[in-house]
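User: Hi! I'm working on a homework problem where we have to compare a predicted structure to a textbook description. Could you give me the structure for the chain below?
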Amino acid sequence: VQVVESGGGLVQAGGSLRLSCTASGLTFNQYTMAWFRQAPGKEREFVASHVHKDGSTYYADSVKGRFTISRDIAKNTVYLQMNNLKLEDTAVYYCNAISTYDDYWGQGTQVTVSS
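Assistant: Happy to help. Predicted structure tokens:
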């Protein structure tokens, strides 16, 4: 199983980025897909999730209204569209594939928001 994130980078405050996460080696539509992030010196925190069973989405309060998670089943990919980025969004963003029996993590992609 591989979970690979991409799309991170350096962006100015107020700008946008779209992260991608492609999962292989698993049955993609049987996994809830989630994004987490970890800023320097802080614990990893939940950002957003997309539930495979019914397509429900959930967001951390800090990103509601600015971030959108979506899934492309044909591409085995989940996206995180991030708009109106803030300095406090700077972190390594991790993708997580979760099922009843197991979960898998990607290696992370760095997002840096500058003033």
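For your comparison, note the following. The two ends are 38 Å apart (CA to CA). The mean pLDDT is 97. Good luck with the assignment!
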